[in-house]
Design goal:
Blueprint lengths: L3 E2 L1 H9 L4 E4 L4 E4 L5 H11 L9 E3 L2 H6 L8 H8 L4 E6 L14 E5 L4 H9 L3 E3 L1 E2 L16 H4 L5 E2 L11 E6 L2 E6 L5 H7 L4 E3 L2
Length: about 210
């Protein structure tokens, strides 16, 4: 049965603890309320992920990210004011225990404010924190349009937008705060040269 829906309907599904497929400016994603352990576990199961791998989280505002830990990270505010909304994910220790399901083994969560208005509205419906991971089975190519999302995956979620859009297809750059410095964990939409203009001397290459 078709579960294409309006954005208003998708927001209602997310607010009720549902899982949806949605567009971002980088790729199409799958997610729901990042504060709910059952939602995070469902996303892992849908994608076929074993273990407790952390997920990035989309926020609905810069202030939301600052409130849960970003404000304590040196250079965080300068980075988000320069690159948000956009393709930069910042992994920082967070103070909100409700985000434990999406966090890594050391309590860090990758936060990002999307430039896509649909993703940001869904983040708001999720109480400010939306699981953000590509809408593909593990090991398969990430989709840049709704038409590229595997129908078998769509059958496992509660809904998706009733209109298709083409995303840019470049994943976000991931920076993680480690030992007081920002470490590049994944190259992506924001270049190292652009980052160095904002946090000179603080960037380290990933290993």
């Amino acid at each position: 049965m078709t579960r294409a829906a309006s954005i208003e309907r998708l927001c209602g599904l997310v607010a009720a603890g549902g899982g949806v497929v949605y567009p971002g400016e980088t790729l199409w994603g799958i997610g729901g309320d990042a504060r709910r352990l059952d939602v995070v576990a469902r996303v892992r199961a849908v994608k076929g992920i074993s273990g407790d791998r952390p997920f990035p989280v989309l926020v609905d505002s810069m202030e939301r990210a600052l409130a849960v830990g970003g404000g304590e990270a040196p250079g965080f505010e300068a980075l988000v004011r320069r690159f948000w909304p956009g393709g930069l994910t910042l992994a920082v220790p967070v103070s909100d225990p409700a985000l434990a399901g999406a966090s890594g083994p050391y309590g860090t969560v990758g936060l990002r404010l999307s430039a896509d208005p649909v993703a940001t509205r869904l983040a708001g419906a999720a109480g400010g924190f939306l699981v953000s991971t590509s809408a593909n089975f593990t090991g398969s190519p990430p989709p840049t349009s709704l038409g590229e999302v595997d129908g078998r995956l769509l059958a496992l979620v509660d809904g998706w937008p009733d209109q298709d859009v083409l995303c840019r297809g470049v994943a976000s750059t991931v920076l993680e705060l480690a030992g007081g410095n920002w470490v590049v964990r994944r190259a992506g939409a924001v270049s190292a040269a652009e980052l160095a203009e904002v946090v000179p001397g603080r960037l380290e290459p990933g290993k």
